[in-house]
């Protein structure tokens, strides 16, 4: 990766990690205060409002990010695209707000929570983060998030004190989103020209945005619908919490693995607009290896420490989340791979039809398997359905890119990382069995992580991995310059 791309990856990784600091720091506290039932209600109501934001946004943010990337060097045209897409998103989200109020805000046992979450939908009208992502200016997004998330964490500890404070927790969630989105507008004047309202043609974006909206719906089906179906098919809302909290842990790991995709998407779109196909192919091969480098140790590592992590992180009453975490852990690898083939390659090269087919097939798989598995296996069944869906998505995307890339080369480039991950897991198991059986959970987790990290990178060094060698060479060159 070039220096700018590397810096953007670090910034985007920091952005995603900051996004997850809120649940990472507050989850152990809130899980204990609200309990499994309270967390279940919180997750269920947010999953409902997420659908209205999704349908109201019509894929405009993802489409806008790509279009801004195409027009990075053309200030007047990118300014026009920004304000046209904002107006279109405001119109469609206003319709979503009307439907949401009619259906949920004044009836049902959760009506008061849905009224609070209206603020979250409004906040999404003002979201311009896709503009800065398209411009590859991730530094701006990190700056806004850092302060906002710190305030969110502080407010959670101050205002969430009892199991009846679900409303406060939802309000903090909505207000932090609103404040974060508003803050980005402070930096916007530096990047836009004076808009000419006479040239605006808002509705020219409807058809191409809809083309990206369909796959987003499909993706949401197997990322949000799991929680909706758990809450709808089962009377025990605690099952939603078991799934939600395990999924949240995996998402924290996925953030590190998939952050490269967010950075690479506008970068590859820009290269595609300039017909630099050889550079794109080289970047994609490197991206797969980078995903393997991170995904295998994280996937095996989370399985190795799950029995200690869940009770320590979530407290009593979440034992079922251990099984869910075992089942769902492979999505770290599958989503990492499909991020490269789909988000990094198919979308920026205008092959969204193939991307749509793949995620729609995954969504259909997830929907069918949820109906079959949830009644019998509850939260673990939802996790298994998600794994099957992600495997279908990745497999289909590999079929679509097979003429552009060697699939055999992509798969076999994972060998060193798979071997190193398995050896790492074996060493952690031996350490837990022979040395750490009587240690307290926190100590056991800390030692496991240290042992796992050392073994994994020593194995890669022994296997002469090129990525690790390149990283070591980069450090040596930097030290030599100093």
Key traits:
18 helices; 482 residues; globular; mainly alpha
Helix and strand sequence: HHHHHHHHHHHHHHHHHH
Task: Say how many strands there are.
Answer: 0
Uncertain spans:
none
What fraction, in percent, of the residue positions are helical?
A: over 70%
Q: In percent terms, what proportion of residues is strand?
A: under 5%
Q: How can the largest sheet be summarized?
A: none
Overall residue-averaged pLDDT value? 84
What structural category arises from helix and sheet content? mainly alpha
- The N- and C-terminal alpha carbons lie at a distance of 22 Å
Taken together, the total number of domains comes to 2
- Helix tally equals 18
Radius of gyration: 23 Å
What general outline do the C-alpha atoms trace? Answer: globular
Q: Could you characterize what this model shows?
A:
It is a single chain. The protein has 482 residues and is mostly helical. The chain has 2 domains: 3-413, no CATH class; 418-482, no CATH class. Helix content is 82%, strand content 0%. It has helices spanning 3-57, 60-70, 75-105, 111-125, 129-134, 138-159, 166-184, 206-221, 225-233, 238-273, 277-314, 320-328, 331-346, 352-401, 407-412, 415-434, 441-462, 466-481. Helix 1 (3-57) crosses helix 8 (206-221) and helix 4 (111-125) packs parallel to helix 7 (166-184). The longest helix is centred in the N-terminal third of the chain and has 55 residues, at 3-57. The protein starts with a helix and ends with a helix. The mean pLDDT is 84.
